[in-house]
Amino acid sequence: MNNEPVAWMAANELLFSVVKDEIYHIPLYTHPAKTLTDSEILALWTQKNNLNGAQDIIEFARAILRKAQEK
Predict the structure, then answer these.
(1) Which end of the chain is less crowded, N or C, counting CB atoms within 10 A of the terminal residue's CB?
(2) Residue 25's domain spans which residues?
(3) pLDDT category, 23, cuts 50, 70, 90?
(4) Checking DSSP bridges between strand 16-17 and strand 7-10, what pairing results, if any?
(5) Count of CA atoms in the C-beta half-sphere (13 A) of 62
(6) Are residues 27 and 52 both part of a single domain?
(7) Do the Cβ atoms of 48 and 56 come closer than 8 Å?
(8) Is 65 in the same domain as 43?
(9) How many domains does the structure of the chain reveal?
């Protein structure tokens, strides 16, 4: 992963630039996406295998997000 800035931000403004200069000098970086493997998703599905409504599906989606945030 490249750890170089992707843009620069001005200190006193909500502006940014892809070119570094005397105004835009605060570096901005990207970060890798937090992902789950297929087996991790299937493990969560197994834990919640009795999904039968919209609320259950929402809870499953939230479980996936929580698991990804643990990484």
Answers:
(1) N
(2) 1-31
(3) confident
(4) antiparallel
(5) 6
(6) no
(7) yes
(8) yes
(9) 2
